Amino acid sequence: MFDSSLRGQSYTGLMLHRSLSLRLLPTALAAAALGCVLAQSQAACAWGNEGHRLINRLAAETLPASLPAFLRSDTAIKEIEYLGPEPDRWRSRGEPQLSAAQAPEHFIDLEPADALGPLPRNRLDFEAKVFASGQRPEKIGLQPWEATEVWERLKAALREYRSLAAAGQDTRPVEEVAIFYAGWLGHYVGDASQPLHTTIQYNGWTGPNPNGYTTAHQIHYQFEGPFVAANEHEPEVKAKMTELKTIDGDIFDSYVAYLRHTNSYVEKVYQLEKAGGFAGAGTAESREFTAERLAAGASMLRDMIVTAWVESAKPVPDPYAGK
């Protein structure tokens, strides 16, 4: 049994879903974690900065020539990269309402979510199921709904771009909007490539522990923080990206499948930590595993952007027709 009361605590950049007990951390690690809570600087909040920027940059750099030039420009690539950690910048104590409202959008605990039955496509339907069970949505997480909603914003912006371009009108404003949505989307897609964003085992093993995995509240930060910053670089990650594809079928179903694949690696993270894989330079296996996870995020983001462009060509009914 996990303590759901700990869900939803702000933890800028590190994306630790519950508040950490700093008394359990080594002094240096506690200082680093506290710095991420109190400051907006992302330099020490790796997957919230280095990892997210790398995922977004690789996705933008590998967009195919079939997409509009504005999305593939140097300016767009730099902006999309910058926006990788953007939602982490909204987790400040200076904006408590914003921080509280958007914190659940970075994760989903699939164990309690699946216990409620199949995940509905509509966010409000899921929230209704959670409330009906006597729980609260912010304790379980809203990750797939936020990601698909931002993807739909991107698709809508690209549809508007097509319309304005066809009419010979100025497309610059909608280009800027689409670039923002692409960068914003990248944050959640990146979060969803990190196994500890998909489980109640987010930061130290809970419940029966026959394999003796760590129960200390530091594996999350140790894995996605200093280890990524020190050991993961663009060439190694880019080499592990999958081939470009357009996502067929329902985007929500595809995204949930992506989340579930990520979730299948939860125990692997703990196994690597137990073997010293996230200390210092780690091991060849831990470095390769982490590069693959970052590459999975970059590949999925690229494919979702491409799919948004393809889907934006499909006509939709005018919501204001006849009114």
Task: Write structural notes for this entry.
The longest helix is centred in the C-terminal third of the chain and has 28 residues, at 284-311. Mean pLDDT is 88; it is low at 1-46. The protein has helices at residues 27-38, 50-61, 69-72, 74-83, 96-102, 110-114, 123-132, 137-140, 143-166, 172-191, 219-231, 234-238, 251-263, 266-274, 284-311. It is 54% helix and 0% strand. The protein is built from 15 helices and no strands. The chain has 323 residues and is mainly alpha-helical.
Gist of the model:
This protein is mostly helical and 323 residues long. Helices cover 54% and strands 0% of the residues.
- Beta-strand residue percentage: under 5%
Portion of residues in helices? 40-55%
What's the total helix number?
15
Instruction: Please tally the β strands and state the result.
Output: 0
Could you name the ranges where pLDDT drops below 50 across 5 or more consecutive residues?
A: 1-46
The count of domains is 1
Question: From the 3D coordinates, which CATH architecture would you assign?
Answer: Orthogonal Bundle
Distance between the termini: 53 Å
Category by helix and strand content? mainly alpha
Looking at the structure, the CATH topology is P1 Nuclease
